[in-house]
Structure formats: structure tokens, C-alpha cells
Amino acid sequence: MSDSPSVPLPYRLIATDLDGTLLRGDHTVSQRTRAALAAATVAGAAHIVVTGRTVPVARGILDDLDYHGLAVCGQGAQVYHAGEHRLLTSVTLDRQLGALALEKIESEIGPLFLAVARDGLDGKVLFGPGYRVHPAERAARSLEDRAALWSAPVSKIYIQHARLGDDELAEAARTAAGGLVGVTVAGEGLVELLPLGLTKATGLSLAARRLGLTAEDTIAFGDMPNDIAMLRWAAHGVAMAGAHDELKAVADEVTASNEADGIALVLERLFSPAP
Fold first, then answer.
1. What CA–CA distance (Å, rounded) separates 23 from 163?
2. How are strands ordered across the β-sheet holding 113-118?
3. Model pLDDT for residues 75-116, shown as the tens digit of each residue
């Protein structure tokens, strides 16, 4: 008696953002979502975490999740092998361009509060006077001297403004300096300046290539504007229920929230064997 033919996988690569998508508010992954991802990987799909967090900030969470695969970090700037604790690729922001971009933005809207993410496996987040540190950046260090922020290679610059909200600030930054740097909103209080053209899709495409996979093989999940390029790149893009409106506008579907097993609901539908 011959074996029944195998059923083709709907997608061979599952790309998930971390905060607000894979992680619940307490920085854990539900058992249902873990089981759905495990079932998909047993079926032959690969799972890649794609996060705006730089490697030093993401590493502890990935270790806690017992995650051993490739991770795309720093908004696409870094491809990291979590199992080997090894940085495979890294892109830095030209510091002269970054300083010029800040000058142009501040000439239009006034002073900014700044932080930078240093490059490398052990790169710290350094923040200047007035910058409100995001809870994710627990290991951030304060620097009173603004010039010292530029003393070593950086992955990205974080900017805040005393008066403008995140979306307004991002739009003002794009208008003033969009020809010099990329601008994205990664979360509340997280407006970031990046190397021009760098997105999560950039890093994900590099990581996928290492696995012999392409955009056509990929389903991607996210919740913020920094996930837009990734969802557009993937064959199927899924926004979480609590996602930013800009992301929902480009998604192929909207699932439940990260607190309500949104990823699991989609994966169970796609990867559960037919009765």
C-alpha cells in the first residue's frame, strides 16, 4: 500500500514581529501560540522572529523563549543566529548623515530628545537629557554629553519631541530629512531614524535567502508601521487586532490581538490537517 501524497505547505516561512504580535503584554508567548508554531515547524515551515529591537535588547527575550533560529533585529539591520549567539550581518547608520538629519529636523520643529543604539552583540542603548526610556530598553545608559552619543558606530537613532506625538514627529522627520535617513514608528514613544532604505523586509529577505526561501513562501505578522514593508514583502501579511491603522491598511487580513492568540488562530486554520 503506497503512502498518501504529502499536502503542500501553505507557507514555508512564518515571520513574526515580537512586541505586540508574538509577545503578550507580560512578554510571554501563550501555550496555544507556542503549539501552533510548533505544529507548523513540524510540518516543515520555518519560523523567524523579526523585531525592531537590536540584538542586545532582544537576546534575553529570545533566550527566555528557548528560540534557536534566525532572528532579524534592529528593524532589519541585523541578522542574528539565536542558537549560536552569533551576529551574521549588521548594517550601521552613517553618523554624519544622522547628525545632518537631526540638524534639518530640529531646524523645522525645534529641539529633539535623543537616544542611540550602538552596533554589535553588546551594543548599549545610550540616551541623552530629556529622553524618556522605553520599558524595553531596561539596560539603557544615560549620557549628559550629546556629542558622546556619536563616539562609536550606531544602528539607529531614537527621537522624541516635547510637543509632537509619534505620528506627527515621524511625518515631520520624513519631510525634513527623508532623503537622508529612513524614519519609522516602532511603538509608543519609539520614532526611529535608520539607514536610508533599510526596513524589516531588508533583513527578512536576507534571512529567508539563507534558508533557501523567498517572499512567495512567506506569511508575516505585525502590529506597527515598522512592519509595513515586511507585510508588503510577504505573500500574505497579517495585522493584529490592535495594530496601527497604517499597517491594517496594507494587510491581507486582520487577526485577533496578541493577547487573544491572533497568530495561533491563523496558523491553526492554515496548517491544521483537513478532516
1. 30
2. 141-142, 125-127, 113-118, 154-160, 190-195, 181-187
3. 999 999 999 999 999 999 999 999 999 999 999 999 999 999
